[in-house]
Amino acid sequence: MKNRSELREIIMKVIYQVNILDETDLEYNIDDLIKEQLELKNDFVNDTVNGIIKNKKEIFSLANKYLKDWTMNRLNKVDQAILSLGIYELKYTDTPSIVAINEAIELSKNYSDEAVTKMINGVLDKIYHEEENQLDTK
Question: Which of 2, 35, 66, 124 would disulfide-bridge 6, Cβ 3.0–4.6 Å?
């Protein structure tokens, strides 16, 4: 049984594949991509992967709002996947914000360079604070 951090890494890998396949207009079955990475069905993985794909436009738009001198399309596919996962968990799940941010940063430390890790941290932090401010004003 994999822990949540390991499952997030699988989600990141699947989203990475989806980003590449979408760009090349190749057909794919999302369930097959997940099965390649994970033998047993896992609701957390399935729900998160499908949620990221379903909300990709909003996730990219939100990321672009806070990316400084960059856009999601300019980031490499791994960094897109990590940032998408972090934003999805912040915006669309009950995952505690600190956990969502820390998990994305840990993935970034393993798959990206230090500058990208700082950038991902900054974007997620800004999104988190924007959400908190919106809640405070309601």
Answer: 2
